[in-house]
Amino acid sequence: MIxxxxxxxxxxxxxxxxxxxxxxxxxxxxxxxxxxxxxSDVFGGRNSTYETExxxxxxxxxxxxxxxxEAMGANAVIGIDIDYEVxxxxxxxxxxxxxxxxxxxx
Length: 106
Known about the structure:
Blueprint: E1 2-3, E2 14-28, H1 31-43, H2 48-71, E3 76-87, E4 93-105
Parallel strand pairs: 1-3
Antiparallel strand pairs: 2-4, 3-4
């Protein structure tokens, strides 16, 4: 499956537009991760705990989007956009959504 943020794919012709596809992941951040991330805040440096959580959620959202495109008969997704939101009463949830247009290219 070809995936791209652009509206075209170099060297490929779009022969059919299948429609919009989405992938969404909502991930809770637990208190143990919060404790370790708090240490990064105190001592400085990058927060690998949250970076890992963010990467995993993004990868899952993209995979879900690809699976939905495949189910529609597409072999590529163009115009991909990834959005991040913090949800919940205490901002304890992370939502990552991936969207794009499923197409058939040759």
